[in-house]
Design goal:
single chain; alpha+beta; 6-stranded antiparallel β-sheet; 17% strand
Length: 366
């Protein structure tokens, strides 16, 4: 029995590697013809073009993993059924669950590998890929740079900062305005300074004035040449490189959400991105659960192409509903957790239903 399970597992892995390699190759060819003109127009070195696509492979492999699992499951089971190997295994006393358990286990392992890649590998390769394309090819001088001009931020203590310019190397600010809000009557304090410099563990504001307010309006105005105020932000808080979503690990996305929540910003869109990145790898398991009963059923009614067609149709339905659910989440109709995980749970339940109705003669029992 163990030998037969290993046989199914190795066959699935072989087909999966061939399938994912083929899908990656197709993706690279299509993307190459879309990008190559832009690389050539900017006289980009050949090494940049080659490096761009090498760095893009982890992203494509992660993106194509669920589709590859679906196709590998269909081809593996359809091949076994066509050669009557499934019938022989059942005659040896191995149940459908026992035959397909290696496929589910391998799909779960692939999902975990994609999740690990999105945490440790893909953010690094995506950042290098984007640097080549946006900085070297498109000459976007602001890509991957610390924002230094016209900064606006809401601090951890809810103060609002306006900064004309920021020098991250010298930890100095020019044209600083800090507004301290009050929940009862609006503005409690406003600090205006020509410049500010970070020294030891605090900001020293230079050549400015501080105004105090109450419910009736302005209370006092005090001018100063150099003065320190208790504020929550430090140079490290200002020196944050702006990253694209695909360049951030799951931990970085979660940390960004926590910071924005402390600053009072709306974090619903970032929660959607985080849960989407968490749920997407597990689509591999969902599609495997769907493909197993559909492949075994459809193999009774047609050949390999019929099996592939039925499963691709189901995969298309799932992809459509998953994208729709994410869109509804971005629009505020669905909670972020429901938007990202709802389709997975729905189709997992459907997969178990199809497994429990394996004895039905219909290709898709309703």
């Amino acid at each position: 029995m163990m030998i037969l399970k290993k046989y199914v597992l190795f066959m699935f892995i072989k087909v999966y590697l061939l399938t994912v390699s083929g899908l990656i190759g197709i993706y690279l060819i299509i993307d190459f013809f879309e990008r190559v003109d832009e690389f050539m127009a900017k006289n980009a070195p050949l090494i940049d073009l080659v490096s761009y696509y090498i760095y893009k492979i982890p992203f494509i492999a992660s993106y194509m993993a669920p589709q590859s699992v679906l196709l590998a499951t269909v081809i593996t089971l359809a091949s076994l059924a066509r050669q009557n190997e499934l019938t022989a295994m059942k005659a040896c006393g191995i149940s459908v669950t026992g035959i397909t358990l290696p496929i589910i286990g391998a799909s779960a392992l692939i999902a975990l590998m994609v999740l690990a890649s999105s945490e440790y590998l893909a953010p690094i390769t995506n950042q290098k890929m984007n640097y080549i394309f946006f900085s070297k090819v498109r000459n976007q001088v602001t890509y991957g740079k610390i924002p230094q001009q016209d900064l606006w931020l809401k601090a951890k203590d809810h103060a609002i900062w306006s900064i004309d310019s920021f020098d991250p190397e010298k930890s100095t600010l020019q044209g600083v305005i800090i507004v301290m809000p009050d929940d009862d009557f609006g503005i409690r304090q406003r600090i205006d300074a020509r410049s500010a410099v970070w020294s030891v563990d605090k900001w020293y504001f230079v050549d400015g004035y501080v105004r105090q307010f109450n419910k009736e309006g302005l209370v006092s105005t005090e001018f100063f040449e150099s003065r320190s105020f208790p504020v929550s932000e430090i140079p490290k808080d200002l020196a944050k490189v702006r990253k694209r979503p695909e360049e951030m690990s799951l931990r970085e996305m979660y940390a960004t959400i926590q910071v924005h929540a402390q600053e009072g910003k709306d974090t619903s869109q970032k929660w959607i991105d985080l849960h989407r990145n968490l749920s997407y790898p597990f689509i591999s398991i969902v599609l495997a659960l769907l493909a197993i009963p559909l492949s075994l059923r459809s193999s009774r009614h047609g050949g390999l192409l019929f099996c592939v067609g039925v499963n691709l149709a189901m995969g298309f339905v799932f992809s459509f509903l998953y994208a729709l659910s994410i869109s509804l989440g971005r629009g505020g109709t669905f909670d972020p957790i429901l938007a990202a995980w709802g389709p997975n749970l729905l189709f997992t339940a459907l997969g178990f239903y199809l497994l429990l109705t394996m004895d039905s003669e219909k290709a898709f029992p309703i």
